[in-house]
Input
Amino acid sequence: MPVDLAVQLCLSHSPPIRKLLNSYEELRGNRGRKPLRSCLNQKLSAEPEPERRDSTKSSKGQKKKRVVFADMKGLSLTAVRFFSKIEEDLCDLQHALSDLACFRPRLRDSRPEVCRYVLDFPQPSVDYMTFRSRLHSNLVCLENCLIQDRTLSGTVKVRNIEYEKKVMVRITFDGWKSFRDISCQYMHSMYGSADTDTFSFELALPKPSVSRRATEFCISFQCGQKTHWDNNHGRNYKICHVGMTRPPSHAVKSANGAWEHLGTSRAAALVLSHLQTWRRSETQAPYWAPALPGPFTMFLLLPFDSLVVNLLGISITVLFTLLLVFIIVPAIFGVSFGIRKVYMKTLLKIFQWATLRIERGAKEKNHPLYKPYVNGIIAKEPTSLEEEIKEIRRSGSGKALDTPEFELSDIFYFCRKGIETIMDDEVTKRFSAEELESWNLLSRTNYNFQYISLRLTVLWGLGVLIRYCFLLPLRIALAFTGISLLVTGTTVVGYLPNGRCKEFLSKHVHLMCYRICVRALTAIITYHDRENRPRNGGICVANHTSPIDVIILASDGYYAMVGQIHGGLMGVIQRAMVKACPHVWFERSEVKDRHLVAKRLTEHVQDKSKLPILIFPEGTCINNTSVMMFKKGSFEIGATVYPVAIKYDPQFGDAFWNSSKYGMVTYLLRMMTSWAIVCSVWYLPPMTRQPEEDAVQFANRVKSAIARQGGLVDLLWDGGLKREKVKDTFKEEQQKLYSKMIVGNHEDRSRS
Output
């Protein structure tokens, strides 16, 4: 029979779908019905031959049942349908059920009048907001209900207010002259929320009759000494007895009382609502869904508003267009529209206004403001050990100042130096963030934020929203774009043969990607004396404040990097970059071999066609207030050195990386949530090693030039003191200076 075959092909393993289609199963038992139409065309059908008709009879005179397609007898078929493996999709099921609807009126006309149960109320969970409101106020609410083969089953949601709970269904079949209480069973659900529990019930209904009064039931929830009821706002939940002349199980009752076919979208949403709390459904069926938390489940069931989707798509398109026009394209060609400079000037005016408000508020409250000591709390003069000791002897002794003898007053010099070091250590304070004299609406680097007025508090809150909700996502997107283009571009360029074309493309790919990364930090860079930029075959040395120093310099020049090979994302970037550019990467075991490192660097600088090497001789990050000792390794090669001074403006954001306090991810997050990175870069004239200089003297001369140009303090201390103790050689150096002042002349005379 064609109808039975179609129903079997469309059935799902999901029990709710079988329940909604159960009325079709009854038709299969009715063998006495005639087919809807003949399988053969009437004009081509013929009476079978007598001998063939007789041969189909058995020995007892009964006919054997046989099914023969018309084309096997040379006749034409009424219709031809091709069946393939069913793609079990809900949309396909809806269309298939819609096609079956046309058969329903013909079958209904020929079947006897039968009475059935039908729910006389909408499913409570369809209107999720009302359902949650009822659950919150009544502490109990019916979630879903279903009738199948005179069996009423459903689920109940209760608030998890106590551990001991008892949920029952009270039902009557005679208008509350008598009733029964049915206990509900607790349902374990891995997706359930912590504030609600789910119970299920199942009970048998008597044989329906039109003359019988309507069946009603309600839900009771006993918790502690109290009993809470869900009686559908006093109307109870009613089950009607209706005949088959009313639309049976192939229709679903909606919230407003109308009956809808399964082919509609609203009915499909109701079908899915049955699936979320079904206990015995097979998880392999395509229409089964777990009991997700309420809001998330309803979000999945509700259709998207096309207007909202369109507006969202337009917004994303406009955003990416603005990024392309105002950021990525200018980065490719190295131009700027001046937007960042206007942004910087606006911030400066806001900072000045905030500083005036703080000072006025502190003056009114008579609170002294903290003023950072830029040059230290102790006034120091650049004098030597010998000069200071002579000054002490001049004021406290009548002996000749050049007498090579020990005097007790010399102790005062060492005592004063020790106390000064304790009070104002000129080395330790170089490894902490620089304190600002005025507030920049960031609570990271200013001690005066406790004197903020209400207006400043509102302004600070607005700044937090701008930095974290607008600037941070934009900067992350730009950083991802720059890094992705760098890895992709250098990898593609790396497959090209060596030559001018590869060098040209590699240079512009590096410059483009670094400029995009600079814009990801909202960096405003001013380059001075660009005619002194490093050239091939040289070494570029600069003071070191942050890992972004590389991006700052590489966005204006093409350099060969020197460093250790890393793993993870950094390793991926390094391996991609070395394919397009001759960078110098060392293995971890090779870094400690000074001779091997010097050999690799020498081979690189001797080839005048190779790019200049970018090196930071300090070996660690300093807070951009001073320049510490340069390692002599890069000055022993004998190549031309191109000094570069980098000075950051801490008003807009602190660029110093305190690696002992923050990891790389935290540091980058702090950079991307700052207002901007503002810095100045000076290209100094190239310097070469003099014949009478050794590597240490040459390094100190270059360091002094960088400190003088950038307005930084020139220190002789090693930046390695950031993590290590003071070496004994430093102590011995001071001892040698003092001993030379006392016994140095005597030693010279004895030798002569």
In short: The chain has four domains: 2-57+67-110, 115-301, 355-451, 522-724.
